[in-house]
Amino acid sequence: MKESQPSAILLKDYKVPPFLIDKTELTFDLDETNTVVTSHLHMRRNPACGKSTQPLVLDGGEDIKLIGVAMDGYTLPSEEYRLVDDKLIITATADEFVLTCETLIDPQNNTRLEGLYRSSSMFCTQCEAEGFRHITYYLDRPDVMSVFTTTIIADETRYPVMLSNGNETERGKTDEGKTFVVWHDPFPKPAYLFALVAGDLAVKNDVFTTQSKRDIKLQIFTERHNIDKVNYAMEALKRSMRWDEETYGREYDLDIFMIVAVDDFNMGAMENKGLNIFNSSCLLASPETTTDDAFLRVESVVAHEYFHNWSGNRVTCRDWFQLSLKEGFTVFRDQSFSSDMHSETVKRVEDVSFLKTAQFAEDAGPMAHPVRPSSYIEISNFYTLTVYEKGAEIVRMIHTLLGEEAFRKGSDLYFERHDGQAVTCDDFVAAMQDASGVDLTLFKRWYSQAGTPVVTVTDEYDEQTKTYRLTVKQHTPATPAQPTKLSLHIPIRVGLISEQGDALTADFHNERSDDFVLHLKDNEQTFEFTSVHSKPIPSLLRSFSAPVKLHYEYTTEQLLLLLSCDSDGFNRWSAAQQLAVNELSQLIQQAENGDAFSIDSNLVAGFKALLEDETLDPAMVALILKLPSQAYLSELAEVIDPQAIKGARHFLKVTIANALAAQFADVYKKHVVMGKYQANAQDIAHRSLKNTALSYWAESADQRAQTAVAEQFKQADNMTDQFAALSIAVKTNHKSAQNMLTAFYEQWKAEPLVVNKWLMLSASQESDDALGAVKALMEHPSFDLKNPNKVRSVLGGFGQNTSGFHHKDGSGYQFLADQIIVLNKRNPQLASRLCTPLTRWKKLKPELSVQMKQQLERILAEDLSKDVYEVVSKSLA
Ligand code: TRP
Ligand code: ZN
């Protein structure tokens, strides 16, 4: 452990910057190991600070070497500046001056993948959140916005493509015969949006004509061998641009928009102004190598980064505590976009099951924090599901409270009022409130309070007076640093359904309808509906109108009725999930007690009806058939017994499979998609149902299913079907599973993104020596510790390997801890994210819990990065 531990940054300590940088002029003399960066910063004291004599303190990093510093052309002797804890401090400055800094950096050996680094044969950057300080000394904070001009100097034969933000304004030769290119970005921006790329890249060109008839040049760059895989991303980009004009009235501003794909990237993608940089896994797509899920992900990430041009770049964050200002809003925007492009219900079900599985778990664990955190040690640790996904739910609730039209007025006002500014979540809410007249004072607590509220509903119907009452209570459990909680303003969308399954109307607040939004504001409230002609079954929290855990004592009959009759598609799925969860909870209990498994026949009957009804949307049927995941059941459990959950799921799946083998076989055959592969909603739906049916059928005793799996693996002309067959073979211990895995690798070993899928599936394969198998994978020629995608594939796959990861001797946890310790030095952001499974230690059953805790303690004893230190120390607190 280090002598002194890193300290926390607090929201309440925010102060405006003492200096501003009006213009930033950068020159990069690119070299693999010795890149020289020269900056001219046109600075002045911030008038908002009043008269001040504060010294100039610029952020830097341990990995940059200061060559020299000058003020208005005068080279400072070493007594006139100091380097303290990575900061460059200059005590005496004028009110206005040009600061020149020369730094030396080593991109080739930058394994942290922030700042300027090398990926394959190219140079690229990642500056969010605090990467720019690893390039040059700067006021590296988002409320310092500057106009950037960037000159790139390189050897043109090796780096013919040289890109930065904005427009190319000049190009020529230096005295030494190198090429220089100048880029100018007229929009002031914080340093985190700076980007630079240089390499021998191929490009795909296109044009988008905006609503005001301006032609925008679109370019996607990749390494040469990948350029045939960007067509889908280009089309998705054009759809995004059109959608943002139509839905939010937002037009693109520069004359050129560029995207670059890189292989080594810590996250999904980055919205640098005019020059987005993408993890190649979120950009490249072709039918042969990419699954349906991955196509949809490419579309949504392209949209997400594009939408940031307004929600993030034109209007940015004042400080990093406000991260959800741009991320929550932009996730909401990309979710709405995908919903409009495909199926609204399917998209909502997918987003909500992700939220309920992963964000709810985060909110219940040691890293729980509000959507607007009030403190952090390392900001990279706060790019979380809470900030992104729960943040998006907050924006969605505002949309529900205001309605479509007023919400649009609010977003118009927000963009107009704050264009070119760095603002706060409060500013966002104020614009929504001012434009709509809806009071959001109480609602704002959603930003500052962590934890998932539990909402409990009871009801009564009075036959005599035809009155129906819903009594709703809320309670938010304590989270770290927030022992007591206040009540929240929770919009609860409710529908009423008769016992025959029809919509049931009622009077409520001078409105007669069968669908209402209730405003829960107190800890307990009763809502009264009148002129209700028969006893209703409530359809609660329709379309998941708030990110809460809902409790209502539904009978199995009521759930079956909602499953077949609710007009809200989301709640039909929700009812099915509840039925399956009820069934699985009993089975898990039986497994833990060592009792024999037994199930009710209701779920089987419900599934049978579903499989035999040909009028249903195949995508919905597929979603409903998917059993609650191991991860979701773990989130629901009070104490997690991974083996019991796995056993219960397996038993239920096999039981359903055997009871309905004929139906699954039938559905499997009916939903084969003919013709050329297309990633449209309809074909994706059919493939999804077909492959879900196969995953059941293959669990049954019907031997023909085994043949079908092997045939599909061999015959498939697209990755969705091929990989589905392979996964099913592995999960059901198909007799040829091993041969299929080998054949798959041989077929695809030249395609890294496919190899990653193979790595993940192989690492998740259960066996007596799962750990040995994973260790062998890390020695495999296709593995590379420098590449985050590969690390995540293997360790992520292993995390789902119940027998390997949760081995009772603790060897699985020890192995993960070993990797975290190695990566802590090389790539702290990646190492920190790999800690997530270990943060759940308190919820595991005691034998496993102690083993996991020991590994956290072992990690904590190391010399740790801020990233890993924060997660591990908070987990043990
Ligand atoms: N702003 C990016 C997004 O939401 C997130 C991101 C990309 C990021 N790369 C990063 C955050 C590196 C932290 C570190 O799309
Ligand atoms: Zn984002």
Please provide a written account of the structure:
This protein is of the alpha+beta class. Among the domains are: 192 residues, Immunoglobulin-like; 126 residues, Neutral Protease Domain 2 (Neutral Protease, domain 2, Orthogonal Bundle), CATH 1.10.390; 96 residues, Sandwich (Immunoglobulin-like). It is 40% helix and 21% strand. It has 27 helices and 33 strands. An 8-stranded mixed sheet has the order 6-5-9-3-2-12-15-14, with no helix packed on it. Strands 17-18-19-21-20 form a 5-stranded mixed sheet, covered by helices on one side. The radius of gyration is 28 Å and the shape is globular. The site of tryptophan (TRP) has 14 residues, from strand 20 and helix 2.
Helix content: 40-55%
Small molecules in complex:
tryptophan, zinc ion
| Cα-to-Cα separation, first versus last residue | 16 Å
Mean pLDDT: 98
Shape: globular
Task: Please count the helical segments.
Answer: 27
Uncertain stretches of 5 or more adjacent residues: none
CATH class descriptor of the domain at 9-200: Mainly Beta
Question: What structural category do the secondary elements indicate?
Answer: alpha+beta
Kindly state the number of beta strands: 33
Strand order of the largest sheet: 6-5-9-3-2-12-15-14
Tell me which CATH architecture of the domain at 9-200 applies here: Sandwich
Q: Could you give a short account of the major beta sheet?
A: 8 strands, mixed
Radius of gyration: 28 Å
Strand content: 15-25%
Using the coordinates shown, work out and report the CATH topology of the domain at 9-200: Immunoglobulin-like
**What's the name of the CATH homologous superfamily of the domain at 9-200?**
tricorn interacting facor f3 domain
| Assembly state | single chain
